[in-house]
Design the sequence.
C-alpha cells in the first residue's frame, strides 16, 4: 500500500469518492449518527476490528449516538496516505449494518 503522503489533489479526488468524509487539518474525518448508544458502541468495536486487521488505527470517539473518526498516518509524519483512505472505505462498508448515517 502507498505510504507516501498524498498531494492535496489526490486527497481531494479520494474524498470525492467518500461522501461525508472531509479534510480536517492534516487528517481525514467523518462523524456518523446512530439510533442508540448501543449501536454506536457496537460500531466502535467493529471499527476497532478493522483497524487491527489493517494495522492502522484512527482517533475514534464514541458519543451518545455518534461515532467520529479522524485518520492520518503517523509513520509518515502525520500526513494523509492511501492507507487512511483504505480504512475510511472499510468503515463506509460496515456503517450501514449499524444503521449509521
Sequence:
Amino acid at each position: 500500500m502507498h505510504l507516501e503522503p498524498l498531494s492535496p489533489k489526490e486527497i481531494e479526488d479520494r474524498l470525492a469518492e467518500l461522501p461525508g468524509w472531509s479534510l480536517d487539518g492534516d487528517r481525514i474525518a467523518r462523524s456518523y449518527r446512530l439510533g442508540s448508544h448501543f449501536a454506536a458502541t457496537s460500531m466502535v468495536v467493529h471499527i476497532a476490528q478493522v483497524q487491527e486487521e489493517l494495522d492502522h488505527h484512527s482517533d475514534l470517539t464514541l458519543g451518545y449516538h455518534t461515532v467520529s473518526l479522524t485518520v492520518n498516518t503517523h509513520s509518515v509524519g502525520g500526513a494523509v496516505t492511501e492507507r487512511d483512505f483504505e480504512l475510511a472505505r472499510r468503515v463506509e462498508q460496515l456503517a450501514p449494518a449499524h444503521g449509521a448515517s
